Amino acid sequence: MNYRVPRPVPQVILDDVRGAQKMLSGVSRVTAMEGSRHLSALTGSPVHLKCENLQRTGSFKLRGAYVRIAGLRPEQRAAGVVAASAGNHAQGVALASSLLGVRSTVFMPVGAPLPKVAATQEYGAEVRLHGQVVDETLAAAQEYADRTGAVFIHPFDHRDIIAGQGTVGLEILEQCPEVRTILVGIGGGGLAAGVAVAVKALRPDVKVIGVQAAGAAAYPPSLRAGHPVSIDHPTTMADGIKVGRPGDVPFAIIGELLDDVRTVSEDALSSALLLCLERAKLVVEPAGCSPVAALLSEPERYGGGPVVAVLSGGNIDPLLLQRILQFGMAAAGRYLSLRLRVSDRPGALAGLLGVLTTVDANVLDVSHVRTDPRLGLTEVEVELHLETKGPEHCTQVARTLHGAGYTVIG
């Protein structure tokens, strides 16, 4: 990494991660490692996907939550625990608490996906909705802890959490001992910090690279400043890494041990989600596919040997999945929306659709607008949604319409 943090690394060491691995035996799954021929061909190096989206509760979060709660003293367990999360940590805390017989209350943002809210409740937690972003939800959960005596289970800013997440790194080294680069998404930083602790202790030659959504990238400015910096209004579809400020504990580790932090666009995230679904047959949430987005964005960076991309979670609202897939198809040139003006006469629409037939564009939806004041008396605006075969096909469709005398206005 280009920036080094002038502070000692907190006491999270390899022995902590190994202890967490023993504690998690029989609780968390050793998730699969799947190869990706498409990404391997793109980068010129073997690419493997570490499928934490197939973990219990659908993400890696169970690992850290269980280790943290299992380490509580009896009187602390009796007081119950409280957590705050957009969904994955919520489910991890809920299940871990149920397995350990501890009462749990979980605060979630008001806009949290309904399936994540429902799953958290089904795992046994009491759910309270508060705040628009995770940082506001965290503050509400901390206030509840101060008021009730419940133990606050932070999603990333605690050594036990980091040790638990670090077991992902141990599994990667066992499953892919020849690995040269590990890509892992970063929100608050717990997973990346844990993986870095484990991997760098055993294989300092392996690069560990963090990935953030460009609209919620608090780590680059924080690393430049040398301390955690808050960003205003983080914006990304990747709610699992939508965190406005790095955690103090993971920040120091990441600043010391990570080799780089990259950012990815929303287009890249949606394309990565589509690729995971189509090519790998894996349902992955936007935050979970951020490492794949990094590979798609700059494949030439990762040609130096086997790469492991950590798919950190697969919990996604079906409605959001539908929108993202449509967005991803558009970004890949496989979905095209057009607006045209045609004569408002019998047969005009049939003529337009006939032109589209000649270029093999599949019409998904058609709508007419006749009341826009910008339209002439004999005009109608037609909006078309087409399924296309890629950027070149989109260009062909536009050229064919232009050649037939149609003017595309949007």
Short synopsis of the structure:
This protein has helices spanning 14-23, 37-43, 61-70, 74-79, 88-100, 114-122, 134-148, 159-165, 167-175, 190-202, 219-225, 248-257, 266-278, 290-297, 318-331, 348-358, 391-403; strands spanning 33-35, 47-51, 81-84, 104-108, 126-129, 151-153, 181-185, 207-213, 260-264, 307-311, 335-343, 362-369, 379-387. The protein is α/β, with parallel strands linked by helices and 410 residues long.
Structural overview:
This protein is α/β, with parallel strands linked by helices and 410 residues long. 43% of the residues lie in helices and 18% in strands. The protein has 17 helices and 13 strands. The protein has a six-stranded mixed beta sheet with strand order 1-2-10-7-8-9. Helix 3 packs across helix 8, helix 8 packs across helix 10 and helix 9 packs across helix 10. The longest helix has 15 residues. The chain is globular and about 80 Å long. The N terminus is likely disordered.
Distance between the termini: 43 Å
Mean pLDDT: 90
Could you tell me the number of beta strands? 13
SSE order: HEHEHHEHEHEHEHHEHEHHEHHEHEHEEH
